[in-house]
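Tutorial, part two.
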Amino acid sequence: MDRLISAEALRRAAQRADAPRRLTRIADAVLEGRLTWEEVAGGRCEHPLALTLFTPKARETVWPLLKEAEAEIRAGAAPPPRDEFAVLVEDDEYFAQFRVLRAAFESTRIRW
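Running the prediction step on this input gives:
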């Protein structure tokens, strides 16, 4: 298999929120140290997850996303920001987002 996409494009595409499951599973394997992005991009990796990138279905689903990531790299665009949870400053702001059904917790009848 010849090198068709860069390791950086694979890395960037895997970090996107709309990354296919196939690509995120490869990213998990890279984080676990089972393979590297360079091996996957070069086609030198015989790991089953890496080989799934070169199937006909992956060429239809994953490769368009990889081509977009490659174009972003060539254009010098920064990677898209990752969605992060808002950090709330005060506890009151945090608890204000929940609805508490007080009637369910209050009992009018005292049980001894």
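The mean pLDDT is 77. In part three we will examine how such features are distributed along the chain.
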